[in-house]
């Protein structure tokens, strides 16, 4: 019965909620919202991975000369080495959250569908990498 009604003894993190007497009603728009959020995260990760891959492709498209370059090839390699794993991390996070939220909805369990740690963590990691890339590019331009 606990798995059907999603009471506080079955759902992790629902200790503060009163037990339900009827199964939770999940509207179809909730599934679409979950999918839309997943696709948004995947879109951002694809953009980051695409930009880093394009930067690597553009640096190797020249004939090996360094004339006309403002940022060194080492900096571009560092950008791609940071952004490709970050994009993969974003897709993994999006897939994990999509699956967990969708399993809560399929089982009609009470669950906390908001996540305060994941997006903030990814935003801080992205901010740190952007600051590091900016500093590296500034060092390349000045020196």
Automatic annotation (TrEMBL):
It is found in: Endomembrane system. Residues 30-102 form the DUF202 domain. One of its GO terms (cellular component) is endomembrane system. Keywords: Membrane, Transmembrane, Transmembrane helix. The lineage of its organism: Eukaryota, Viridiplantae, Chlorophyta, core chlorophytes, Chlorophyceae. The keyword Membrane applies. It comes from Monoraphidium neglectum. InterPro entries: DUF202, VTC_Complex_Subunit. Its main location: membrane. Signal peptide: none annotated. The chain crosses the membrane at residues 38-60, 80-98, 119-139. It is a multi-pass membrane protein. This is Vacuolar transport chaperone-like protein.
């Amino acid at each position: 019965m606990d798995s059907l009604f999603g009471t506080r003894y079955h759902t992790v993190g629902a200790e503060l909620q009163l037990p339900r007497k009827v199964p939770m009603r999940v509207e179809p728009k909730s599934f679409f919202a979950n999918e839309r959020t997943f696709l948004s995260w995947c879109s951002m990760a694809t953009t980051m991975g695409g930009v880093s891959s394009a930067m690597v492709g553009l640096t190797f498209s020249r004939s090996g000369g360094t004339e006309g370059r403002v940022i060194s090839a080492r900096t571009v390699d560092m950008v791609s080495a940071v952004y490709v794993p970050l994009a993969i991390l974003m897709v993994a996070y999006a897939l994990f959250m999509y699956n967990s939220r969708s399993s809560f909805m399929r089982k009609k369990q009470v669950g906390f569908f908001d996540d305060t740690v994941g997006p903030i963590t990814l935003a801080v990691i992205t901010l740190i990498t952007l600051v590091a890339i900016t500093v590296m590019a500034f060092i390349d331009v000045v020196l």
